[in-house]
Structure to design on (495 residues):
């Protein structure tokens, strides 16, 4: 195994694959570079001497500039590199020619075909509150119903508490309704019990109208202030839903029906080298099969947004991408926060120093496919192919938004690890093998082998096979351990 990697021939930094020691020698283009200090794994080493303000290049693009003189062989981190990004930018559409796609294959999976034609990869019973005041009730109902049925005949019985639904105004109120609507109508649910209090902003009758068309056999409503024993009534309604859901069977579904969310969290210096390119390869494969992938985390596009803009299918889509980016920048400005203050303590410890560096790694999850549509927060998928979705970088909020827009599962790359999962299967892909070994209860698939001699073609095939198993019913860690949560984006005032 190599001890370091220069990702792009234009890069003037290399990345340590294993910890490197002061005095170690690196050979780059017939040049020998002596390390002046220890370099942790995943971190950058200067392949040349930098003058102050000189661009530092990684992935073939600037990731910032030297904030001071940096000698060759030095560790480059947040102490000596600064972002080039500032302010709101003007953009020009420079269309990029789409790369040839993978040949379409005759691949199917076993899924659940719903009455309206939608497809699910799970058949679960969900209990969803319209307001946080009834969280205790829905948790009791879920536990009681699991004890009664032992989960026989369905994939899971899950309550999804949240803190909203009342005391919200404007966009926050609408966003809560949109996310809950996406859950109620999600095809991974074979039955849904919607539970309200009765006095909340998010009234059950109004929410029912907001849903639009839905399968009345598969959705039930209960207002707890309007019934005597809410547990007794709730159990009766759950039994009605169970009668339908427990009879559902998997059938052959073409892979073109699959919708997948692309997500990263706890990124490190290996994210843009291993796991994110693997997701990019998978995204391109699925799009070539006429399936759908969705990229979100808008702040983690800043600095790499032009790469996505120039892959827009046409000028109209380009304009949507520009609006997506500038709208999110306006959110920061309205709240008097710096636009480009993004890498977290975990990111920095893992080797990511600037937002450009993080974004160039993050956007690799989208592969090379053209961007076909842009969704605002809470919107539903309408167009097949690669979509962009407006949501913040927060793992809980972004994953929930991906699931609520219609994704059947979320592919989540991580270099630091997280147990979190949202209301659809949340597949964790490690960027490095150490994480995979140390956290087997969190991580489902290891992409770290890409820096250990494994080829992308070989690993991509293994990953595709694994995902087919998952959508056919193989549970992932967040399902096995019942790590299932939702989180809704809040931007405004609470009464």
């Amino acid at each position: 195994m190599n001890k370091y990697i220069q990702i792009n021939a234009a890069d003037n930094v290399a990345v340590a694959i294993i910890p490197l020691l002061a005095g170690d020698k690196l050979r780059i283009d017939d040049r020998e570079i002596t390390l002046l200090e220890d370099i942790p794994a995943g971190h950058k080493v200067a392949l040349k001497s930098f003058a102050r303000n000189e661009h530092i290049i990684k992935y073939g693009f600037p990731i910032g500039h030297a904030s001071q003189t940096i000698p060759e062989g030095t560790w480059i981190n947040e102490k000596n590199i600064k972002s080039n990004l500032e302010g709101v930018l003007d953009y020009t559409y420079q269309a990029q020619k789409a790369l040839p796609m993978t040949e379409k294959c005759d691949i199917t999976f076993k899924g659940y075909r719903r009455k309206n034609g939608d497809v699910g990869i799970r058949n679960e019973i969900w209990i969803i509150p319209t307001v946080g005041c009834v969280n205790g009730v829905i948790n009791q109902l879920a536990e009681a119903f699991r004890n009664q049925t032992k989960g026989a005949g369905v994939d899971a019985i899950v309550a999804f508490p949240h803190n909203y639904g009342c005391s919200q105004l404007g966009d926050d109120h609408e966003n809560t309704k949109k996310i809950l609507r996406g859950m109620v109508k999600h095809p991974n649910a074979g039955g849904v019990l919607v539970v309200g209090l009765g006095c909340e902003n998010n009234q059950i009758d109004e929410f029912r109208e907001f849903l639009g068309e839905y399968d009345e056999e598969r959705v039930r409503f209960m207002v707890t202030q309007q019934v005597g024993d809410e547990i007794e009534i709730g159990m009766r309604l759950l039994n009605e839903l169970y009668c339908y859901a427990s009879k559902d069977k998997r059938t052959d579904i073409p892979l073109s029906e699959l919708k997948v969310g692309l997500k990263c969290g706890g990124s490190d210096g290996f994210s843009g080298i291993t796991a994110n390119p693997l997701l990019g390869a998978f995204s391109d494969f699925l799009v070539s099969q006429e399936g759908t992938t969705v990229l979100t985390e808008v702040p983690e596009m800043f600095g790499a947004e032009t790469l996505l803009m120039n892959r827009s299918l046409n000028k109209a889509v380009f304009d949507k991408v520009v609006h997506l980016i500038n709208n999110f920048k306006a959110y920061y400005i309205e709240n008097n926060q710096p636009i480009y203050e993004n890498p977290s303590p975990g990111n920095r410890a893992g080797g990511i120093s600037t937002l450009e560096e993080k974004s160039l790694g993050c956007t690799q999850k989208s592969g090379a496919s053209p961007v076909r549509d842009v969704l605002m927060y809470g919107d539903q998928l309408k167009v097949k192919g690669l979509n962009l979705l407006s949501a913040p970088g927060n793992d809980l909020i972004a994953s929930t938004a991906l699931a609520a827009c219609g994704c059947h599962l979320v592919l989540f790359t991580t270099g630091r690890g997280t147990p979190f999962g949202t209301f659809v299967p949340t597949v964790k892909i490690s960027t490095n093998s150490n994480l995979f070994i140390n956290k087997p209860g969190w991580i489902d698939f290891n992409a770290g082998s890409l820096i250990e001699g494994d080829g992308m073609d070989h690993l991509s095939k293994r990953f595709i096979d694994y995902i087919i198993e998952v959508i056919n019913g193989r549970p992932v860690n967040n399902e096995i351990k019942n790590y299932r949560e939702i989180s809704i984006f809040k931007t405004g005032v609470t009464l």
Observations:
- The chain has a mean pLDDT of 95.
- Residues 282 and 412 are 13 Å apart (CA to CA).
- The longest strand covers residues 189-196.
